[in-house]
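ESCALATION

Customer reports they have been waiting on this structure for their group meeting. Please prioritize. Original submission:
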Amino acid sequence: MSDRVAISLVQGHSHGGVALVFDIDDIRILRNLGIAGILAGTLPSATQQNAFLSVPLRLMTEEALWLVEKGAAYFVTGPESVTSAANAVTPQDMLQTRQKLELSFAEQREFKQQEHVEKLRQLGLPSDDGQSPTTKSLLLESSLFIETPNSSALVPNQPQDPARQKLLWKQLRDACKNQGDYHVYKALRQQEYFLSPGARFGGRFIAYPGDPLRYHSHMTVQPALDYSRDSLDLLQVVSGGRLGTGVKKLWVVAGVKPEAEDPSEQVSFFSIEWAAFG
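Update from on-call: job pushed to the front of the queue and completed.
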């Protein structure tokens, strides 16, 4: 298993695409890197449920950019990956796949037959329950299933050429609605904060001091402002401070200075909270 995570860029309404991770092992690597993401997978039979979501893991644009820039991930995109994989399939590959499927069916048949006999024994019934062999065979075959893997065994998740990776990175970067948000994200990640989308708390990010499974979020970070040009509305400061106090979080404003040569000086943070509350 490669230490670099494969991020699938699914083209949608956004210009750069939606960043998704399908492999469970890759998701585990991301968690160790401080990337929580949002599970977005659901069941076709219960598409509206949101209590038991699974893969794929959806990443924020800033998360995907940061991972690739850090060298911890690479982009996989385009129909050419599927086309090249399909063209590379040989008759021997198809035979091996069929043999694995038949082996899985044989194991399922043996297990289900043993399970059926054990149930009859517990009920005190003879193993021959009077059903015809044809009926038994039909019932057994109808209970077999095919497991659908989360990641493709045919599509090679190998990094594309560096020029292609740079182009995809730039397209995703240009698709950011607020270019300064990525500087804010990087600054907070350097301080080892876990970050999640912050719309439900009235911000761009929610910042956790550690893994969200262990800690509550401490800050609601607002969309980035240009430190030299953008103004901060006093009414926004008052309403934001009250909102932050209401949800027991610091309301944080970040000013970005793109012209700063030192990366550590590109972002300045200001926290606002109501005094004598809580």
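Sent to customer with the following note: The longest strand covers residues 250-256.
Escalation resolved.
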